[in-house]
């Protein structure tokens, strides 16, 4: 694996652990695709640092468990915004 890829993988992993970020927000922050973040975290990180991979997996599983809540809040905000415009 190329050095710059390893560096990116480790940087992504540290960012996710420190901030509790989602794959989508991490991809936006580092200007890479969600697919790249996912591949880096699930496959490449496991080869580089299995301990760090386990920590990241825990954060991502927590994000996955909470995503229905974030989706509900986003929908609520959307309709609150629409109703204020219509009034």
Structural class of the secondary elements? Answer: mainly alpha
Q: What do the pLDDT scores average to?
A: 89
Treating each run of at least 4 consecutive H or I residues as one helix, how many helices?
A: 4
User: What percent of residues adopt helix (DSSP H or I)?
Assistant: over 70%
Low-pLDDT residue intervals, each spanning 5 or more residues: none
End-to-end Cα distance: 57 Å
- Main sheet attributes: strand count, strand direction, barrel closure: none
Query: How much of the sequence is in beta strands?
Result: under 5%
Q: Shape, please?
A: elongated
Q: Nearest-angstrom radius of gyration?
A: 16 Å
Number-wise, the strands total: 0
Provide structural commentary:
One of its GO terms (molecular function) is DNA-binding transcription factor activity. This protein is mainly α. Helices cover 89% and strands 0% of the residues. The chain contains four helices and no strands. Helix 1 crosses helix 3 (34-48), helix 2 (23-30) packs across helix 3 and helix 3 packs antiparallel against helix 4 (50-86). The longest helix has 37 residues, at 50-86. The termini are far apart.
Key descriptive features of the protein:
mainly alpha; DNA-binding; transcription regulation; 87 residues; DNA binding
Write the layout of secondary structure elements.
Elements: H1 3-19, H2 23-30, H3 34-48, H4 50-86
Helix pairs in contact: 1-3, 1-4, 2-3, 3-4
Characterize this entry briefly.
It holds the Pfam family SpoIIID. The protein is built from four helices and no strands.
């Amino acid at each position: 694996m190329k050095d710059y890829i390893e560096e990116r993988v480790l940087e992504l992993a540290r960012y996710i652990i420190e901030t509790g970020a989602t794959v989508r927000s991490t991809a936006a922050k580092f200007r890479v695709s969600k697919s790249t973040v996912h591949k880096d975290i699930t496959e490449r990180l496991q080869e580089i640092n299995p301990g760090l991979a386990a920590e990241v997996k825990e954060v991502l599983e927590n994000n996955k468990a909470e995503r229905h809540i974030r989706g509900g809040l986003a929908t609520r905000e959307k309709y609150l915004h629409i109703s204020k415009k219509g009034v």
